[in-house]
């Protein structure tokens, strides 16, 4: 990854166990980014309430588990600021002030607004919190005057909204906020065991905390090329969801061997999967070992979050001082 100057801000909702999708889609990039930028990574617990407001009981435990996973994969609290969104109330204050000046149609046109309403059936999402969560994201980002926001391509509209929010605020009150750029990171799309995008809500995820036996039992049952109904049927890795794991985890030689074996039907799907399963287990082993060591240190999560809150609050308070003065609220 190229060197990134300035501040980087990103967050993740605490909605359950982190999985291989989180690891390959965000966390590996975060670990690299902290080597070259000042990074603020936060547990987005207020964002979790936008869809799970009726059942918030799991947020606290998920927050603890998330911080342990972050530390285990290599996020360093001595280098990056790791904190919990709700412990820095300036996020809410800036969100409120933005809500006074941002037109509702700006929020309604965000692509994920209607998409999530369609996907999350059975939940009443006709709340202001759900409509306004992209504006809360803008507050999360602009509060720290981020230069870059690491995102997948599907999240670029959220960054563009943040840029528009900054421009509108600056036009009314003066140049307070820089316009952040979306940093499209190299993120592997990790399929779930059923071939869809890996997601806890789909029940198709391999968690970072899954032991070797569980990883094996999940991935060995993963869907493959539907043309391989029998062991002797040839297939094509391009049509095999399981092969996407080979592209992420395996060597070029291993991919070439299983490709040839699949197309000639000289190997079966289980033998093919065993190659990538071993690689996944090898990666998760050290992460889980570090996590077990962290679990033996009572209070480590609280210490990390307290120090992160202190560092984040210092920046947030300074920014809000500028905002209040600009808006005549002092």
Write up this protein.
- There is one protein chain.
- The two termini are 43 Å apart.
- The strands form two sheets. The protein has a three-stranded parallel sheet. A two-stranded parallel sheet has the order 4-5.
- The radius of gyration is 22 Å and the shape is globular.
- Strand 4, helix 8 and strand 5 form a beta-alpha-beta unit.
- The protein folds into two domains: 7-190 and 299-327, Rossmann fold; 210-292, Tyrosyl-Transfer RNA Synthetase (Orthogonal Bundle), CATH 1.10.240.
- The chain is mainly alpha-helical and 330 residues long.
- The chain is built from 13 helices and five strands.
- Helix 9 (212-219) packs antiparallel against helix 12 (269-295).
- The longest helix is centred in the C-terminal third of the chain and has 28 residues, at 300-327.
What's the structural blueprint in terms of helices and strands?
Layout: E1 7-12, H1 20-33, E2 38-43, H2 45-52, H3 59-73, E3 81-84, H4 90-99, H5 104-108, H6 111-119, H7 128-142, E4 148-151, H8 156-173, E5 181-184, H9 212-219, H10 243-249, H11 252-264, H12 269-295, H13 300-327
Parallel strand pairs: 1-2, 2-3, 4-5
Helix pairs in contact: 2-7, 3-12, 4-7, 4-13, 7-8, 9-12, 10-12
């Amino acid at each position: 990854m190229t060197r990134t100057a300035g501040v980087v801000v990103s967050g993740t909702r605490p909605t359950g166990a982190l999985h291989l999708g989180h690891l390959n889609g965000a966390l590996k990039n975060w670990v690299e980014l902290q080597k070259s930028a000042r990074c603020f990574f936060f547990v987005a617990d207020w964002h979790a309430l936008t869809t799970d407001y009726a059942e918030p009981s799991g947020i606290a435990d998920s927050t603890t588990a998330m911080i342990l996973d972050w530390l285990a994969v290599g996020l360093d609290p001595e280098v990056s600021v790791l904190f919990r969104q709700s412990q820095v109330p300036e996020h809410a204050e800036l969100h409120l002030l933005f809500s006074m000046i941002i037109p509702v149609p700006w929020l309604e046109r965000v692509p994920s607004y209607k998409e999530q309403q369609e996907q999350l059936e059975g939940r009443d999402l006709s709340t202001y919190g759900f409509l306004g969560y992209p504006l809360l994201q803008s507050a999360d980002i602009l509060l720290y005057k981020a230069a870059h926001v690491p995102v997948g391509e599907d999240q670029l509209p959220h960054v563009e909204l943040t840029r528009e929010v900054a421009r509108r605020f600056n036009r009314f009150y003066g140049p307070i906020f820089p316009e952040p750029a979306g940093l499209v990171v190299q993120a592997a799309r990790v399929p779930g065991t059923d071939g869809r995008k890996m997601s806890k809500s789909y029940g198709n995820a391999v968690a970072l905390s899954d032991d070797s036996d569980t990883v094996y039992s999940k991935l060995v049952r993963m869907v493959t090329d539907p043309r391989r109904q029998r062991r002797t049927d040839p297939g094509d890795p391009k049509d095999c969801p399981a092969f996407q794991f080979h592209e992420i985890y395996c060597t070029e030689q291993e991919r070439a061997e299983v490709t040839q074996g699949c197309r000639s039907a000289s190997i079966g799907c289980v033998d093919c999967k065993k190659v990538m399963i071993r690689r996944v287990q090898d990666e998760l082993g050290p992460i889980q070992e570090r996590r077990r060591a962290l679990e033996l240190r009572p209070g480590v999560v609280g210490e990390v979050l307290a120090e992160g809150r202190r560092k984040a609050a210092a920046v947030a308070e300074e920014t809000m001082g500028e905002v209040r003065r600009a808006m005549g609220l002092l």
